[in-house]
Write a structure and sequence with these properties.
Elements lengths: L19 H15 L3 H5 L3 H25 L1
Helix pairs in contact: 1-3
Length: about 70
């Protein structure tokens, strides 16, 4: 990323690359649970998509734990 305050010098930060396989997993996971089109999920900011993935995973864990306790 170029930092305009440093005369065009490179400064580390941001996401230079994200593994395509991981991105596809996140999109598939959210598409499965929300029935949103993949294109909409791909347009989400990385941070927002990860937040949704984490929240859905938490919900799934709580449901699985409750089901386990019921048996």
């Amino acid at each position: 990323m170029l930092n305009p305050h440093r005369c065009g010098h490179f400064t580390p930060g941001g996401i230079a690359g994200y593994p395509l396989e991981r991105l596809n997993e996140e999109v598939a996971y959210l598409a499965y649970h929300f029935h949103w089109p993949p294109e909409s999920l791909m347009e989400l900011e990385h941070r927002d998509r990860r937040l949704w993935v984490d929240q859905v995973a938490d919900i799934n864990r709580r449901l699985a734990d409750a089901a386990q306790e019921a048996h």
